[in-house]
Specification:
single chain; 7 helices; globular
Length: 395
Protein backbone atom coordinates (compact mmCIF):
# COMPACT_ATOMS: atom_id res chain seq x y z
CA UNK A 1 0.00 0.00 0.00
CA UNK A 2 2.79 2.40 0.88
CA UNK A 3 4.49 1.74 -2.48
CA UNK A 4 1.20 2.37 -4.26
CA UNK A 5 0.79 5.70 -2.50
CA UNK A 6 4.32 6.71 -3.45
CA UNK A 7 3.66 5.84 -7.07
CA UNK A 8 0.43 7.80 -7.03
CA UNK A 9 2.29 10.78 -5.57
CA UNK A 10 4.90 10.58 -8.31
CA UNK A 11 2.16 10.33 -10.95
CA UNK A 12 0.38 13.35 -9.47
CA UNK A 13 3.63 15.29 -9.58
CA UNK A 14 4.13 14.37 -13.23
CA UNK A 15 0.60 15.45 -14.08
CA UNK A 16 1.16 18.79 -12.38
CA UNK A 17 4.42 19.20 -14.26
CA UNK A 18 2.69 18.46 -17.55
CA UNK A 19 -0.04 20.93 -16.70
CA UNK A 20 2.63 23.51 -15.94
CA UNK A 21 4.25 22.83 -19.31
CA UNK A 22 0.97 23.77 -20.98
CA UNK A 23 1.11 27.23 -19.41
CA UNK A 24 4.67 27.93 -18.26
CA UNK A 25 5.55 30.71 -15.87
CA UNK A 26 7.01 33.91 -17.26
CA UNK A 27 10.81 33.81 -17.20
CA UNK A 28 12.53 37.15 -16.60
CA UNK A 29 16.11 37.24 -17.85
CA UNK A 30 18.14 39.67 -15.74
CA UNK A 31 20.81 39.75 -18.44
CA UNK A 32 21.56 38.32 -21.85
CA UNK A 33 19.50 38.31 -25.03
CA UNK A 34 17.47 35.10 -25.44
CA UNK A 35 17.37 34.16 -29.15
CA UNK A 36 13.69 33.20 -29.16
CA UNK A 37 10.59 34.91 -27.82
CA UNK A 38 9.30 31.62 -26.44
CA UNK A 39 12.06 31.55 -23.81
CA UNK A 40 10.43 34.47 -21.99
CA UNK A 41 7.11 32.58 -21.68
CA UNK A 42 5.13 35.81 -22.03
CA UNK A 43 3.07 34.53 -24.96
CA UNK A 44 2.29 31.04 -26.19
CA UNK A 45 0.60 29.41 -29.18
CA UNK A 46 -2.10 27.02 -28.07
CA UNK A 47 -5.07 25.65 -30.01
CA UNK A 48 -4.43 27.85 -33.04
CA UNK A 49 -4.38 31.01 -30.95
CA UNK A 50 -1.76 33.36 -29.55
CA UNK A 51 -2.46 33.45 -25.81
CA UNK A 52 -1.10 35.18 -22.73
CA UNK A 53 0.64 33.26 -19.99
CA UNK A 54 -0.22 33.53 -16.30
CA UNK A 55 0.13 37.01 -14.85
CA UNK A 56 0.45 38.68 -18.28
CA UNK A 57 -2.11 41.50 -18.49
CA UNK A 58 -3.22 43.05 -21.80
CA UNK A 59 -3.84 46.76 -22.21
CA UNK A 60 -4.63 49.26 -24.94
CA UNK A 61 -4.43 53.00 -25.52
CA UNK A 62 -7.22 55.52 -26.03
CA UNK A 63 -5.50 56.52 -29.26
CA UNK A 64 -2.84 54.10 -30.58
CA UNK A 65 0.38 55.19 -32.25
CA UNK A 66 0.21 54.63 -36.01
CA UNK A 67 2.53 51.95 -37.46
CA UNK A 68 1.58 51.27 -41.08
CA UNK A 69 -1.94 50.21 -40.05
CA UNK A 70 -0.55 47.42 -37.87
CA UNK A 71 -2.68 46.37 -34.92
CA UNK A 72 -0.97 45.81 -31.58
CA UNK A 73 -1.40 43.44 -28.68
CA UNK A 74 0.16 45.18 -25.68
CA UNK A 75 0.88 43.38 -22.42
CA UNK A 76 2.56 43.96 -19.06
CA UNK A 77 3.99 41.48 -16.57
CA UNK A 78 5.62 42.15 -13.20
CA UNK A 79 7.25 39.93 -10.59
CA UNK A 80 4.93 38.68 -7.86
CA UNK A 81 4.40 41.28 -5.15
CA UNK A 82 5.69 44.17 -7.28
CA UNK A 83 3.65 47.11 -8.55
CA UNK A 84 4.22 50.17 -10.71
CA UNK A 85 3.97 53.59 -9.11
CA UNK A 86 1.35 55.95 -10.52
CA UNK A 87 2.58 59.05 -12.35
CA UNK A 88 0.10 61.77 -13.38
CA UNK A 89 1.96 62.80 -16.56
CA UNK A 90 4.79 60.40 -17.36
CA UNK A 91 4.87 56.65 -17.89
CA UNK A 92 4.30 54.71 -14.69
CA UNK A 93 7.31 53.91 -12.49
CA UNK A 94 7.67 50.22 -13.26
CA UNK A 95 9.78 48.02 -10.97
CA UNK A 96 12.88 46.14 -12.07
CA UNK A 97 11.72 42.83 -13.51
CA UNK A 98 8.87 44.33 -15.57
CA UNK A 99 8.32 42.99 -19.10
CA UNK A 100 6.30 45.08 -21.53
CA UNK A 101 5.43 43.39 -24.82
CA UNK A 102 3.93 44.73 -28.01
CA UNK A 103 2.97 42.31 -30.78
CA UNK A 104 2.42 43.87 -34.20
CA UNK A 105 -0.06 42.03 -36.40
CA UNK A 106 -2.56 42.53 -39.22
CA UNK A 107 -6.01 41.06 -39.73
CA UNK A 108 -6.22 39.03 -42.94
CA UNK A 109 -8.23 40.43 -45.89
CA UNK A 110 -11.87 39.42 -45.89
CA UNK A 111 -12.39 36.22 -47.85
CA UNK A 112 -8.71 35.90 -48.67
CA UNK A 113 -6.45 33.00 -47.84
CA UNK A 114 -3.28 33.62 -45.86
CA UNK A 115 -0.42 34.08 -48.33
CA UNK A 116 2.16 35.65 -46.01
CA UNK A 117 1.92 38.97 -47.84
CA UNK A 118 -1.65 40.30 -48.12
CA UNK A 119 -2.96 42.05 -45.01
CA UNK A 120 -6.07 44.11 -44.37
CA UNK A 121 -6.00 47.90 -44.18
CA UNK A 122 -8.27 48.40 -41.17
CA UNK A 123 -8.29 50.98 -38.37
CA UNK A 124 -5.75 49.87 -35.72
CA UNK A 125 -8.20 50.98 -33.05
CA UNK A 126 -10.54 48.15 -34.04
CA UNK A 127 -9.03 45.33 -32.02
CA UNK A 128 -9.63 41.71 -33.04
CA UNK A 129 -8.49 40.44 -29.65
CA UNK A 130 -11.05 38.05 -28.15
CA UNK A 131 -10.83 36.54 -24.68
CA UNK A 132 -7.32 37.99 -24.45
CA UNK A 133 -6.15 35.92 -27.44
CA UNK A 134 -5.60 36.22 -31.20
CA UNK A 135 -7.05 33.68 -33.62
CA UNK A 136 -4.08 32.83 -35.87
CA UNK A 137 -6.41 31.82 -38.71
CA UNK A 138 -7.54 35.44 -38.94
CA UNK A 139 -4.34 37.43 -38.39
CA UNK A 140 -0.75 37.64 -39.63
CA UNK A 141 1.87 38.17 -36.91
CA UNK A 142 4.82 40.40 -37.82
CA UNK A 143 6.92 41.09 -34.72
CA UNK A 144 6.88 41.21 -30.94
CA UNK A 145 8.95 43.87 -29.22
CA UNK A 146 9.92 43.44 -25.60
CA UNK A 147 10.86 46.32 -23.34
CA UNK A 148 12.54 44.76 -20.31
CA UNK A 149 13.37 46.62 -17.10
CA UNK A 150 16.71 45.41 -15.75
CA UNK A 151 18.85 46.86 -12.95
CA UNK A 152 20.84 48.92 -15.44
CA UNK A 153 17.69 50.26 -17.11
CA UNK A 154 15.26 49.36 -19.88
CA UNK A 155 16.40 47.12 -22.73
CA UNK A 156 14.60 46.75 -26.08
CA UNK A 157 14.51 43.37 -27.84
CA UNK A 158 12.80 42.93 -31.27
CA UNK A 159 11.55 39.43 -32.17
CA UNK A 160 10.31 38.66 -35.70
CA UNK A 161 7.72 35.95 -36.41
CA UNK A 162 8.49 33.35 -39.06
CA UNK A 163 6.36 32.82 -42.16
CA UNK A 164 4.82 29.70 -40.62
CA UNK A 165 3.63 31.81 -37.66
CA UNK A 166 5.02 29.30 -35.19
CA UNK A 167 7.96 31.13 -33.58
CA UNK A 168 9.63 34.53 -33.26
CA UNK A 169 13.41 34.99 -33.19
CA UNK A 170 15.55 37.89 -32.04
CA UNK A 171 16.56 40.21 -34.89
CA UNK A 172 18.94 42.74 -33.34
CA UNK A 173 19.71 44.28 -36.73
CA UNK A 174 16.06 44.64 -37.65
CA UNK A 175 14.26 43.18 -40.63
CA UNK A 176 12.22 44.08 -43.70
CA UNK A 177 8.89 42.37 -44.34
CA UNK A 178 7.28 42.85 -47.75
CA UNK A 179 3.51 43.27 -47.41
CA UNK A 180 0.46 44.48 -49.33
CA UNK A 181 -2.31 46.45 -47.69
CA UNK A 182 -5.73 45.45 -49.04
CA UNK A 183 -8.70 47.74 -48.41
CA UNK A 184 -12.39 46.83 -48.39
CA UNK A 185 -12.68 47.55 -52.12
CA UNK A 186 -9.78 45.24 -52.93
CA UNK A 187 -7.30 48.01 -53.76
CA UNK A 188 -3.73 47.05 -52.93
CA UNK A 189 -0.74 49.06 -51.73
CA UNK A 190 2.62 47.32 -51.54
CA UNK A 191 5.06 48.49 -48.88
CA UNK A 192 8.09 47.39 -46.93
CA UNK A 193 7.37 46.99 -43.24
CA UNK A 194 10.49 47.88 -41.29
CA UNK A 195 11.26 46.12 -38.03
CA UNK A 196 13.63 48.52 -36.23
CA UNK A 197 17.05 47.39 -35.16
CA UNK A 198 17.88 47.41 -31.48
CA UNK A 199 19.52 50.83 -31.61
CA UNK A 200 16.64 52.45 -33.50
CA UNK A 201 14.33 51.77 -30.57
CA UNK A 202 16.11 54.61 -28.83
CA UNK A 203 14.81 57.02 -31.47
CA UNK A 204 11.40 56.93 -29.79
CA UNK A 205 12.05 55.53 -26.33
CA UNK A 206 14.67 58.07 -25.23
CA UNK A 207 12.09 60.63 -24.17
CA UNK A 208 14.40 62.61 -21.88
CA UNK A 209 17.51 64.15 -23.41
CA UNK A 210 19.02 64.65 -19.97
CA UNK A 211 19.11 61.02 -18.88
CA UNK A 212 19.44 59.49 -22.38
CA UNK A 213 17.80 56.33 -21.05
CA UNK A 214 15.16 54.21 -22.72
CA UNK A 215 11.72 54.65 -21.18
CA UNK A 216 8.22 53.30 -21.90
CA UNK A 217 5.93 55.56 -23.95
CA UNK A 218 2.42 54.16 -24.00
CA UNK A 219 1.59 53.15 -20.39
CA UNK A 220 0.63 56.59 -19.10
CA UNK A 221 -2.51 57.42 -17.17
CA UNK A 222 -3.98 59.60 -19.93
CA UNK A 223 -3.60 56.79 -22.48
CA UNK A 224 -4.78 53.89 -20.27
CA UNK A 225 -7.78 55.58 -18.67
CA UNK A 226 -10.38 53.59 -20.64
CA UNK A 227 -12.35 50.37 -20.45
CA UNK A 228 -10.97 47.07 -21.77
CA UNK A 229 -12.68 43.77 -22.54
CA UNK A 230 -10.80 41.33 -20.32
CA UNK A 231 -11.49 37.62 -20.36
CA UNK A 232 -13.45 37.98 -17.11
CA UNK A 233 -15.38 41.10 -18.10
CA UNK A 234 -15.12 44.74 -19.06
CA UNK A 235 -13.31 47.08 -16.65
CA UNK A 236 -11.42 50.35 -16.57
CA UNK A 237 -7.75 49.56 -17.19
CA UNK A 238 -6.40 51.64 -14.32
CA UNK A 239 -8.89 50.03 -11.94
CA UNK A 240 -8.00 46.59 -13.28
CA UNK A 241 -4.25 47.10 -12.92
CA UNK A 242 -4.84 48.30 -9.37
CA UNK A 243 -7.07 45.32 -8.56
CA UNK A 244 -4.54 42.73 -9.80
CA UNK A 245 -1.76 44.46 -7.85
CA UNK A 246 0.16 45.90 -10.79
CA UNK A 247 -0.45 49.60 -10.04
CA UNK A 248 -0.30 51.59 -6.81
CA UNK A 249 -1.09 55.15 -5.81
CA UNK A 250 -3.91 55.77 -8.29
CA UNK A 251 -6.00 58.82 -7.28
CA UNK A 252 -9.78 59.05 -7.40
CA UNK A 253 -11.36 58.52 -10.82
CA UNK A 254 -12.38 62.19 -11.08
CA UNK A 255 -8.72 63.23 -10.84
CA UNK A 256 -7.44 60.92 -13.58
CA UNK A 257 -6.36 62.44 -16.90
CA UNK A 258 -7.83 61.01 -20.08
CA UNK A 259 -7.14 61.69 -23.73
CA UNK A 260 -9.75 61.33 -26.42
CA UNK A 261 -10.11 58.50 -28.88
CA UNK A 262 -8.94 60.22 -32.06
CA UNK A 263 -11.24 58.02 -34.15
CA UNK A 264 -14.38 58.96 -32.20
CA UNK A 265 -16.36 61.49 -34.27
CA UNK A 266 -18.43 62.36 -31.19
CA UNK A 267 -15.38 63.76 -29.36
CA UNK A 268 -14.41 67.43 -29.82
CA UNK A 269 -12.20 67.98 -32.87
CA UNK A 270 -9.42 69.66 -30.93
CA UNK A 271 -9.34 66.93 -28.30
CA UNK A 272 -9.06 64.29 -31.03
CA UNK A 273 -6.26 66.12 -32.83
CA UNK A 274 -4.29 66.79 -29.65
CA UNK A 275 -4.60 63.15 -28.62
CA UNK A 276 -3.30 62.03 -32.01
CA UNK A 277 -0.35 64.43 -31.90
CA UNK A 278 0.48 63.47 -28.33
CA UNK A 279 0.76 59.73 -28.95
CA UNK A 280 2.39 59.97 -32.38
CA UNK A 281 4.67 62.96 -31.89
CA UNK A 282 4.73 64.05 -28.25
CA UNK A 283 7.36 61.57 -27.01
CA UNK A 284 9.88 63.33 -29.27
CA UNK A 285 8.40 66.82 -29.57
CA UNK A 286 8.29 67.84 -25.91
CA UNK A 287 10.17 69.99 -23.40
CA UNK A 288 12.52 67.06 -22.67
CA UNK A 289 12.43 65.00 -25.89
CA UNK A 290 14.96 64.65 -28.72
CA UNK A 291 13.17 67.34 -30.75
CA UNK A 292 13.33 69.93 -27.96
CA UNK A 293 15.52 72.22 -30.08
CA UNK A 294 12.82 72.45 -32.75
CA UNK A 295 10.70 74.52 -30.38
CA UNK A 296 7.69 72.45 -31.50
CA UNK A 297 6.14 70.61 -28.56
CA UNK A 298 3.18 68.41 -29.39
CA UNK A 299 2.65 66.49 -26.16
CA UNK A 300 -0.64 66.80 -24.27
CA UNK A 301 0.70 68.86 -21.31
CA UNK A 302 1.81 71.68 -23.67
CA UNK A 303 -0.74 74.47 -23.88
CA UNK A 304 1.35 77.31 -25.33
CA UNK A 305 0.01 78.07 -28.84
CA UNK A 306 3.40 79.00 -30.26
CA UNK A 307 5.04 75.82 -29.00
CA UNK A 308 2.13 73.90 -30.51
CA UNK A 309 3.20 75.33 -33.84
CA UNK A 310 0.60 78.03 -34.39
CA UNK A 311 2.31 80.74 -36.43
CA UNK A 312 5.70 79.28 -35.48
CA UNK A 313 8.39 79.35 -38.13
CA UNK A 314 10.62 76.28 -38.38
CA UNK A 315 14.11 76.39 -36.91
CA UNK A 316 15.79 73.81 -39.13
CA UNK A 317 13.56 71.64 -41.30
CA UNK A 318 15.25 72.07 -44.69
CA UNK A 319 13.38 70.18 -47.41
CA UNK A 320 10.79 69.26 -44.82
CA UNK A 321 9.15 72.70 -44.98
CA UNK A 322 7.95 72.28 -48.55
CA UNK A 323 8.54 76.06 -48.81
CA UNK A 324 5.89 76.67 -46.17
CA UNK A 325 6.44 79.41 -43.61
CA UNK A 326 4.69 78.08 -40.51
CA UNK A 327 4.38 74.78 -38.69
CA UNK A 328 0.67 75.54 -38.35
CA UNK A 329 -1.06 78.32 -40.25
CA UNK A 330 -4.51 78.67 -38.66
CA UNK A 331 -7.26 78.01 -41.17
CA UNK A 332 -4.91 76.72 -43.89
CA UNK A 333 -3.70 73.12 -43.70
CA UNK A 334 -2.25 73.34 -47.22
CA UNK A 335 0.19 75.99 -46.00
CA UNK A 336 1.09 74.18 -42.74
CA UNK A 337 4.34 72.22 -42.42
CA UNK A 338 2.90 69.65 -40.01
CA UNK A 339 0.21 68.55 -42.45
CA UNK A 340 2.70 68.53 -45.34
CA UNK A 341 5.18 66.28 -43.54
CA UNK A 342 2.51 63.90 -42.25
CA UNK A 343 1.20 63.50 -45.79
CA UNK A 344 4.58 62.46 -47.23
CA UNK A 345 6.37 59.13 -47.45
CA UNK A 346 9.62 60.75 -48.61
CA UNK A 347 12.27 59.86 -45.97
CA UNK A 348 13.73 63.37 -46.27
CA UNK A 349 10.36 64.99 -45.57
CA UNK A 350 8.02 62.71 -43.64
CA UNK A 351 7.17 62.85 -39.98
CA UNK A 352 7.46 60.78 -37.95
CA UNK A 353 10.83 59.90 -39.42
CA UNK A 354 10.70 56.26 -38.30
CA UNK A 355 7.99 53.74 -37.61
CA UNK A 356 6.04 54.04 -40.83
CA UNK A 357 6.41 53.52 -44.57
CA UNK A 358 2.91 54.54 -45.68
CA UNK A 359 0.82 57.62 -45.05
CA UNK A 360 -1.87 57.44 -42.38
CA UNK A 361 -4.69 58.87 -44.48
CA UNK A 362 -7.16 59.12 -41.63
CA UNK A 363 -4.59 60.77 -39.35
CA UNK A 364 -3.67 63.34 -42.00
CA UNK A 365 -7.36 64.08 -42.59
CA UNK A 366 -7.89 64.66 -38.85
CA UNK A 367 -4.97 67.07 -38.46
CA UNK A 368 -5.93 68.93 -41.63
CA UNK A 369 -9.50 69.31 -40.35
CA UNK A 370 -8.19 70.63 -37.02
CA UNK A 371 -5.86 73.17 -38.67
CA UNK A 372 -8.55 74.36 -41.06
CA UNK A 373 -10.89 74.93 -38.10
CA UNK A 374 -8.38 77.12 -36.24
CA UNK A 375 -9.02 80.85 -36.35
CA UNK A 376 -6.41 83.56 -36.23
CA UNK A 377 -3.73 85.38 -38.18
CA UNK A 378 0.02 85.05 -38.51
CA UNK A 379 0.51 88.64 -39.58
CA UNK A 380 3.13 89.37 -36.92
CA UNK A 381 3.92 92.76 -38.45
CA UNK A 382 0.45 93.89 -37.46
CA UNK A 383 0.85 92.50 -33.99
CA UNK A 384 -1.86 89.90 -34.46
CA UNK A 385 -1.99 86.89 -32.16
CA UNK A 386 -3.34 83.50 -33.28
CA UNK A 387 -6.77 82.84 -31.87
CA UNK A 388 -8.24 79.49 -30.93
CA UNK A 389 -11.77 79.72 -29.62
CA UNK A 390 -11.85 76.30 -28.03
CA UNK A 391 -8.40 76.38 -26.46
CA UNK A 392 -6.24 73.37 -25.67
CA UNK A 393 -8.13 70.41 -24.21
CA UNK A 394 -7.81 69.56 -20.57
CA UNK A 395 -5.97 66.34 -19.84
Amino acid sequence: MQKLMVRMGVLAGLLLALAGCGKPQVHFFADGQPPTLDEWHVLRIDGGKLRLNEGVVPYDLNTPLFSDYAHKLRTVWMPKGEAAGYQPEHAFDFPVGTILSKTFYYPLPSGGAADGKSVARTPPSQSVLQDESLDLSKVHLIETRLLVHRKEGWVALPYVWNREQTAATLQRTGATVELELVDDAGAREAFSYQVPDQNQCAGCHITDNRSRKLLPIGPKARHLNRDFDYADGRENQLAHLTRVGYLAGVPAAAQLPRLADATNPQAPLEARARAYLDVNCGHCHSRTGPAITSGLWLDAPTNDHLKLGLCKQPIAAGKGTGNRLYDVLPGDADASIIAYRMDSDDPAVMMPEVGRAVVHKEGVALIREWINALEGSCDTTAGAVPVNKTGPPAI
